[in-house]
Amino acid sequence: MENIIIHVDMDAFFASVEIRDNPSLRGKPLIIGSLPKERGVVATCSYEARKYGVHSAMNIKDAYRLCPNGIYMHPNIDKYRAVSAQLHEIWNTYASAAETIALDEAYLDVTEQAHSLEGARKIAYTIKQRTKAELGLTCSVGVAYSKTAAKAASEEKKPDGYFEIPTAEDFVNLMSNRDVKALYTVGKMTAEKLYSSGIHTVRDIRERRDMVIGLLGKQGKWITDLAFGIDERKVTPYKPWDAKSISREVTFQKDVNNYTLLEDVLVLLALCVENRANRYGLHGSGVTLKLTYFDMKSITRSRKTSICSNAVMMYKEAAALLKNVEKRPVRLIGLGIYDLSGEEGRQLSLFDLYTDSKKQENEERKRIFDTLKNRYHLDFEKNSEKILRSEVLHKTVEYMRRHI
Fold first, then answer.
1. How far is residue 298 CA from its own chain's centroid?
2. What are the residue numbers of the active site?
3. pLDDT, the chain, mean
4. Starting at the edge strand that comes first in sequence, how are the strands of the sheet with 284-293 ordered?
5. pLDDT 10s digits, 157-186
6. For residue 306, what pLDDT band results from cuts at 50, 70 and 90?
7. Count of CB atoms within 10 A of residue 224's CB?
8. What mean pLDDT do residues 229-235 have?
9. Confidence of residue 396 (pLDDT cuts 50, 70, 90)
10. Distance CA 154, CA 149 (A)
11. Which of 21, 126, 270, 280 is the right S-S partner for 311, CB 3.0 to 4.6 Å?
12. Domains along the chain with CATH numbers
């Protein structure tokens, strides 16, 4: 094998962590996400819940209809992030390059370490054994010649599985009779376009290569390459500044007509975005506002700014955007920054510590916190670090909605 790539994927990660920490949940249909009486979706669920047809991203009301006797829990993102850091520390030990895809998923280039398929197999089983022994969790691992094949391999024997796809020929033989959605990047809309042209399987894509390219253009070329087992992408270590944006959003349990409340919620979202940006030394040069109205219609508004890395500026820019949108009941609100940069933002932050602009920012921040305190009788300044936690943020927003 010219390249040897491992794909590691945890099994029902959030649910598995909760079951590990509370063994009484083992063997029961556990659904992590919103609660049945709330708005929201399933983040993940145990394999017992999947037997009822529950799956990730499903509307929580549909999940409850399918599995009314399930155990429903909010996610504990801080705990999952801590476990994720431990996982990646184990996995990265065995790779010359590691590409983090999510909290529970990564590509590992083990070409230099493994030297052969047999060597990669030993590494894969070592990863599985250490993950189980040290963290009490199971993962599925795929070994292959490419990233696409490695991911397909890890999905082949879930949960707690292992599978190998050594060559492009092996990949083609495995995938030929599968639905087009089995290929990386083929989502629902792309699949529907292919179906409408009589293309249903990966074999159909290979046999009608020109039609697929004509139908989908550049994406069609990429998909047909994958259908032939061609994927030359390298494992690329993730750098935070490679992201296009940083954002945070919340869904209200009841539609909101009060735009003063929406503006106040932007303060909390700005704090969350600021925290993540500062963690990586990033800043943006644009701010976005996202709204989803009661009828599920979503809009996004954005504006370019000067260097933006603090919550005060993010909030003020987003609040200005909010003033110019159509005033209808709102289901969801989000705030983000885009056009991210790294080094300059770090230098600016250090410089600002000794300038009047930093003092002015702190005074403005205190004024905003005081306004919120007077309105909701909560000490937002004292509890700002707690509010950054996902569950606390949602509870705080709901408190604000009920008490404005």
1. 19
2. 105
3. 92
4. 245-256, 330-338, 284-293, 298-308
5. 999 999 999 999 999 999 999 999 999 889
6. confident
7. 21
8. 95
9. very high
10. 9
11. 270
12. 13-77 (3.40.1170.60), 172-227 (1.10.150.20), 240-403 (3.30.1490.100)
Q: How many CB atoms lie within 10 A of CB 133?
A: 9
Place of tokens 């399918």: 66
Residue 349 has pLDDT above 60, yes or no: no
Q: How many CB atoms lie within 10 A of CB 225?
A: 15
Q: Which are the contacts of 193, defined by CB distance < 8 A and separation ≥ 6?
A: 215, 216
- Please identify which residue in the block is written with the tokens 């494992």: 235
Total count of residues recorded for the chain: 404
* 4, two tokens: 């040897």
Q: What is the 3-state secondary structure (H, E, C) of 268-322?
A: HHHHHHHHHHHHCCCEEEEEEEEEEECCCCEEEEEEEEEEECCHHHHHHHHHHHH
Query: Taking the alpha carbons of 322, 328, 329, 332 in that order, is the dihedral positive or negative?
Result: negative
Distance CA(336)–CA(273), nearest Å, equals 7
The band of 347, judged by pLDDT with boundaries at 50, 70 and 90, is very low
Token code pair at residue 131: 């993950």
